[in-house]
């Protein structure tokens, strides 16, 4: 086969990016590992050459750099963007020409790493005039609900916005929910606007904390406290039970507030107690609901909930 007929393997990276491989120190395993780490990440050739061959500010590829520190900052930013660890970056500066020729101390490198992390954190923020503080996901019968805590950039005031799945599909619906809950119009960064809003929604889903178990624990604990204070028997309407349990829940909360996702209507409370029926039974409490005849025409029925201690069982609230 002639040279013209030879089939060459495709080249994915510029060979000049690996010119430094010829100078490997075979008897230095630590440096070899650093070189492997460097070769495994995707960074611009300009950054790779600055690490392996050093660079001079104001010359060549770095004609726009005002100082060595500016070059170091640009290199570290790209390395952190490529998810290289801080320890590996410090080792690179202690081993390769970018740092060895100038006697750069580890404190200087650590400071530049922190600056790079701060910049990346700022770039990752989805809002121009707000900060995403916390996202809590709560499973409900009609699907999950997200309670999103936002901090306004102008006043520093925090507010909680309740979002359903549909509110996370379009920017317009998200903004409308924020206006209703906080009287505040959030402004998203360009990379999260319009059709890219799904990136913000994905961020909210990824960072969400699931707090359904703690909500259920709070409801069960409130029921046990109610049983203890009412002689192990409660028989009343769902509306009165909702108010009574809310009072116990607030008393048991460190800040005197109800947990996120607490039932807001008698029907929601009844459904929650239905789901917790087994857990209540295990705690020694029986739950049942019924309808009683009543009203002027005697055709109306009043819903009633009964909570009572199981026969032969001591409620956890009395232990």
Task: Describe the structure in your own words.
The protein has three domains: 15-124, no CATH class; 130-210, no CATH class; 212-318. With 319 residues, the protein is of the alpha+beta class. The chain contains twelve helices and seven strands. β1 and β2 form a beta hairpin. The model is unreliable at 1-13 (pLDDT under 50). It has helices at residues 29-39, 45-53, 68-81, 86-95, 97-100, 106-124, 171-182, 197-207, 212-229, 238-252, 266-275, 277-282; strands at 130-140, 143-152, 158-164, 209-210, 233-236, 285-294, 300-309. Helix content is 44%, strand content 17%.
Summarize the structure.
It is built from twelve helices and seven strands.
Key terms:
319 residues, alpha+beta, 3 domains, 4-stranded mixed beta sheet, 44% helix
Write the SSE topology.
Layout: H1 29-39, H2 45-53, H3 68-81, H4 86-95, H5 97-100, H6 106-124, E1 130-140, E2 143-152, E3 158-164, H7 171-182, H8 197-207, E4 209-210, H9 212-229, E5 233-236, H10 238-252, H11 266-275, H12 277-282, E6 285-294, E7 300-309
Parallel strand pairs: 1-4
Antiparallel strand pairs: 1-2, 2-3, 5-7, 6-7
Helix pairs in contact: 2-3, 3-6, 4-6, 9-10, 10-11
């Amino acid at each position: 086969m002639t040279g013209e007929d030879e089939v060459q393997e495709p080249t994915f990276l510029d060979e000049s990016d690996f010119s430094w491989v010829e100078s490997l120190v075979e008897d230095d395993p630590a440096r070899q590992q650093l070189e492997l780490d460097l070769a495994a990440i995707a960074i611009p050739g300009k950054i790779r050459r600055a690490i392996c061959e050093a660079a001079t500010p104001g010359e060549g590829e770095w004609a726009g750099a005002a100082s060595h520190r500016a070059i170091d900052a640009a290199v570290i930013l790209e390395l952190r963007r490529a998810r290289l660890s801080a320890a590996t970056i410090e080792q690179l500066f202690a081993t390769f020409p970018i740092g060895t020729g100038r006697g750069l101390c580890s404190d200087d490198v650590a400071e530049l790493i922190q600056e790079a992390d701060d910049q990346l954190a700022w770039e990752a923020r989805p809002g121009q005039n707000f900060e995403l503080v916390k996202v809590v996901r709560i499973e409900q019968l009609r699907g999950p609900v997200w309670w999103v805590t936002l901090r306004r950039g102008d006043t520093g005031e925090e507010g909680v916005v309740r979002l359903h799945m549909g509110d996370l599909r379009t920017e317009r619906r998200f903004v409308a929910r924020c206006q209703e809950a906080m009287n505040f119009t959030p402004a998203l960064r360009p990379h999260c606007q319009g059709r890219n809003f799904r990136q913000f929604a994905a961020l909210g889903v990824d960072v969400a904390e699931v707090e359904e178990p703690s909500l259920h624990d709070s409801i069960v604990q409130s029921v046990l406290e109610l049983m203890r204070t009412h002689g192990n028997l409660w028989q009343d309407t769902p509306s009165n039970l909702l108010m009574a349990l809310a009072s116990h829940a607030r008393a048991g909360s460190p800040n005197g507030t109800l947990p996120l996702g607490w039932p807001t209507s008698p029907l929601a409370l009844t459904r929650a107690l239905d789901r917790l029926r087994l857990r209540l039974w295990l705690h020694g409490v029986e739950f049942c609901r019924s309808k009683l005849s009543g009203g002027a025409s005697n055709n109306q029925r009043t819903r009633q909930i009964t909570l009572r201690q199981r026969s032969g069982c001591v409620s956890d609230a009395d232990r």
